[in-house]
Fold this protein.
Amino acid sequence: MNLFDMIDRTKIPEPWSEGEKIPWNEPGFSERMLKEHLSQEHDAASRRFEHIDAHVDWIHRDLLGERPARVLDLGCGPGLYTSRLVRLGHTCKGIDFSPASIAYARAEAKRNGLDCTYVQGDIRTTGYGADFDLVMFIYGELNAFRPEGAGTILRKACDALTGGGVLLLEVSGFEALEKWGKSGSSWYTSPTGLFSERPHLYLEETFWDAEQNVVTRRFYIVDAESGEVTPHAMGTQAYTNEEYHRLLERYGFTDIVFLPPLPGGAGLFPIVARKPGT
Ligand SMILES: C[S@@+](CC[C@H](N)C(=O)[O-])C[C@H]1O[C@@H](n2cnc3c(N)ncnc32)[C@H](O)[C@@H]1O
């Protein structure tokens, strides 16, 4: 793509039509993203360790009753939750499609002798296994899927739980997403960054679709030397609390409880639900 193609772009994108996600699963991007996951300077990609420690304490105490459990972490990133939960006596499996994150998680498990299994795969299509006591899917990732994909993941999560097992979601609030979607455009220049290791200009447009309740973020990365433009786009689906409730019921969950935000969880809040059974 070049600057003329950019000038000729569709002014207002149809939600999801230009891409669903930033390229988490591209090798180079995933290496650069791994640095963001591990950074202690911000809570983007993964929270700072002080916040993750607090989340893990809460999961261990309040959700798992301090009893050894089988935990599945969907979109586990570099395994920052699983590696802590396993040290508290739980058995953990993480699935993520980022090659650099899964390589890091596996290396950490090996280095520290941790009983964690990691699978590199897309959570819409990868098998989850069965008999988990807890399936967690946090950091607003449910909202990063089209409704069909989110439904597939919730159905598979319910199938993977044992009767009475717990689903932990951490989702985006409707108002926070609507505000984000109306935040407009921004740009910066950088000698190197998440989207390119070369000097580049980063251009971002953000849109709110009030009919489908979707935020679309469109990024153009302009290479400083060649002028080549690399486009990316991502969608984020907003749901009201009633819609979250109905969605969870539709995929077989019960005892649905909305909780206040976790530490470092700006704009996100947990929902805990149960698979029926004992
Ligand atoms: C915001 S990060 C959160 C990582 C981790 N849960 C944490 O809080 O530290 C979202 C993660 O979801 C993963 N992800 C996104 N879409 C995915 C998909 N379709 N299949 C597997 N993993 C996916 C990304 O690679 C990334 O590691």
Observations:
- The longest strand covers residues 161-172.
- The chain has a mean pLDDT of 97.
- The two ends are 56 Å apart (CA to CA).
